[in-house]
């Protein structure tokens, strides 16, 4: 059965929205444990993450673990002037938060908190679905595709690592010519890796 990208999006979002709060909490803790084993995390000081919404895997345990390790955490903010682009702002427990146009919490825009993308070490990337070749299906806005273009095309800038529930994996997604697979995706039960030079 050949589903379109939109149908995949709908189906997987429904699946993850049905996960119970207890399941989410447990999955978030298991995810943090998996990430603590990543070699990349050792030398990464500046790490971009996101706050979970719409049934995404709970990133709270991971954010708290990173803080405990003395890592600097940054969250995406929709760029106020450059349409379809993201800024990343330093995030701490007392950061002032506001709702963006998608009703997702983000740090209140403050120039002093902005970290240029090329100065980040890792960007943990949200996704709706992923397949066995590392292709990622996003929400369709292209925000992360634009942010990570230097990595995808020239291996420059912060390394992207996808985060997902196990149920977000499908064997094959319909892909477009501009889609570039992620080098790594982490779920609560597995680290998927497609790097030729791992």
Automatic annotation (TrEMBL):
Keywords: ATP-binding, Ligase, Magnesium, Metal-binding, Nucleotide-binding. Pfam families: 5-FTHF_cyc-lig. One of its GO terms (molecular function) is 5-formyltetrahydrofolate cyclo-ligase activity. Coiled coil: none annotated. SUPFAM superfamilies: NagB/RpiA/CoA transferase-like (SSF100950). ATP binds at residues 5-9, 136-144. Its EC number is 6.3.3.2. It catalyses: (6S)-5-formyl-5,6,7,8-tetrahydrofolate + ATP = (6R)-5,10-methenyltetrahydrofolate + ADP + phosphate. One of its GO terms (biological process) is folic acid-containing compound biosynthetic process. InterPro entries: FTHF_cligase (IPR002698), FTHF_cligase-like_sf (IPR024185), NagB/RpiA_transferase-like (IPR037171). It is an enzyme of class 6 (ligase). Its cofactor is Mg(2+). Belongs to the 5-formyltetrahydrofolate cyclo-ligase family. PANTHER family: 5-FORMYLTETRAHYDROFOLATE CYCLO-LIGASE, ATPASE INHIBITOR/5-FORMYLTETRAHYDROFOLATE CYCLO-LIGASE. This is 5-formyltetrahydrofolate cyclo-ligase. It comes from Vibrio marinisediminis.
């Amino acid at each position: 059965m050949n589903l379109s990208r939109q149908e995949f999006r709908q189906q997987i979002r429904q699946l993850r929205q049905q996960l119970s709060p207890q399941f989410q909490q447990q999955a978030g803790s298991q995810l943090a444990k998996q990430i603590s084993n990543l070699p990349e995390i050792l030398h990464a000081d500046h790490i971009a993450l996101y706050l979970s919404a719409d049934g995404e895997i709970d990133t709270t345990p991971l954010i708290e673990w990173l803080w405990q390790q003395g890592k600097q955490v940054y969250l995406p903010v929709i760029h106020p002037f450059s349409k379809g682009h993201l800024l990343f702002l330093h995030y701490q427990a007392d950061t002032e938060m506001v709702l963006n146009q998608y009703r997702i919490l983000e740090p209140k825009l403050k120039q002093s908190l902005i970290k240029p993308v090329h100065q980040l070490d890792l960007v943990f990337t949200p996704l709706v679905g992923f397949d066995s070749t590392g292709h990622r299906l996003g929400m369709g806005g292209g925000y992360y595709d634009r942010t990570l273009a230097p990595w995808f095309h020239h291996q420059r800038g912060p390394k992207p690592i996808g985060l997902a529930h196990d149920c977000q994996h499908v064997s094959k997604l319909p892909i477009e010519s501009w889609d570039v697979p992620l080098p790594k995706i982490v779920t609560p039960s597995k680290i998927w890796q497609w790097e030729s030079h791992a």
